[in-house]
Amino acid sequence: MYRIGELAKAAGVSERTIDYYTKLGLIKPETRTDKNYRLYSHETLNRLERINQWKQEKYTLEEIRARLEQLNDIDEAQVTEKLTSLELHLQQLEREVKELEPLISQMKPGQANKAYMHLMPQSLACIEALRLLLNNGPFT
Q1: What is the CATH number of the domain that holds 13?
Q2: How far is it, in rounded angstroms, from Cα 4 to Cα 2?
Q3: Most buried among 42, 108, 122, 139, by the most CB within 10 A?
């Protein structure tokens, strides 16, 4: 648990920012001490880091609040269902790639490179991220 000064230092923001975000409802203390000091959890630190990232991406605090509310509305069952769906889709894509392997192996190196060049870098990164998440993700 973090006191406000510790949280501010860890998140790289001022204590006034912590107070302001608390008043706006973007973050909230986990509990209070006997002397009424607010204590914040590690999850709050993660939330602050997410807020800072979105601020750097030029989101307004109202837009950030809406995004945080959307995250709060997502439950574990929805995440599990979506991950299962993505895993099945990834397995289908892997089967399709295996079907293409004999054709690709018959291509000349220049032809194969040209085919791979048509894949968007974002697609490759997405495939790799899914593979990592499914193999080493937080739900394993």
Answers
A1: 1.10.1660.10
A2: 6
A3: 42
| Residue showing tokens 């739900």 | 139
pLDDT tens figures, 8-23:
999 999 999 999 999 9
Same domain, 39 and 82: no
- Total tally of structural domains belonging to the chain: 2
For the chain, the C-alpha Rg in angstroms (whole number) is 22
Strand partners, 39: 3, 31
Checking DSSP bridges between strand 31-32 and strand 2-3, what pairing results, if any? unpaired
**By three-state DSSP, how is residue 32 classified?**
strand
DSSP-derived pairing of the beta strands 2-3 and 38-40: antiparallel
Do 48 and 82 fall into the same domain? no
Q: Are residues 81 and 53 in the same domain?
A: no
